[in-house]
Amino acid sequence: MTTYELDNERIFRGDLLLVNASHPLRAACDRDLRPAFPRWPKMLLRRPAALAVRQTLERIGAGDLIVPVSAYRAPSEQKSLYAAALRKHGEDYTRKYVALPGCSEHESGLAVDLALNVKRIDPICPGFPYDGICGEFRTEAVKNGLIERYPEGKEGVTGIAHEPWHFRYVGWPHAGFITENGLAFEDYIGLLQSDTEPGKPLVTKDRKSGIVNEVFHVPADGGKVTRLTLPDNAVYQFSGDNDEGFIVTLWRREA
Ligand SMILES: [Zn+2]
């Protein structure tokens, strides 16, 4: 067994941060940003998200058929984007499609808006259909840890309108579980918080590889650190939930 000490400041950092109107970003996310698209050097994402997007596009041979519309936004950019949308489109439209400053996944460096490359691309609501090359992107994206973050029918949960173009990196196995079960990311984090704990994980198995994933939530201790003692037979990854604690993901071989 090994005891891990997680700094409670890390609740606000990681790949599984829940970011929405009631969960603003609390830590700066401008570290570890890199270009996600060879031809658009200014479109930056955090490393795992950049790799996932790049790998997905390469696997499906997207070429120039899919283009980025928006990736990482500095907090000041989100502010001016929100203000500009308000001026141009009014409050109803802006609240539906543009996240409040401080509450946008684009400020986390884990989200990207993509468009089918057509002559006129709408900068707020780009076209990204469910068929053709964009459909292929969706299928491959999940395997690389990306989810469609604002699905149809989940507007009441996410607080954002259906956005077929907005993808969020959450990693594996989370993307697979969320997509297969038709969840919003809010549903998933809520499920982990209420139904899992150390010793009572959400378990998924990959039959092909024999890899077992376990995912569970750990509420943060009151002090500066949260201590967690875990068996040595697995690989662990920790992420804050941007709410009340940590999500532990482990990989092990089926016994
Ligand atoms: Zn977006």
Percent of residues in helices: 25-40%
Q: In the CATH classification, which architecture of the domain at 21-169 applies?
A: 2-Layer Sandwich
Distance between the termini: 18 Å
Q: Strand content of the residues, in percent?
A: 25-35%
* Uncertain spans: none
Biggest sheet: strand arrangement: 4-5-7-6
Bound molecules: zinc ion
Provide the residue-averaged pLDDT.
95
Q: Return Rg in Å.
A: 18 Å
Nutshell version of this structure?
The protein is α+β, with helices and mostly antiparallel strands and 255 residues long. Helices cover 27% and strands 27% of the residues.
Please give a structural write-up:
- With 255 residues, the chain is of the alpha+beta class.
- The chain is 27% helix and 27% strand.
- The protein has a domain at 21-169: 2-Layer Sandwich (Muramoyl-pentapeptide Carboxypeptidase, domain 2), CATH 3.30.1380.
- It has a four-stranded antiparallel β-sheet with strand order 4-5-7-6. A four-stranded antiparallel β-sheet has the order 8-9-12-11.
- A hairpin with a 4-residue loop joins β8 (202-206) and β9.
- The radius of gyration is 18 Å and the shape is globular.
- Bound molecules: zinc ion.
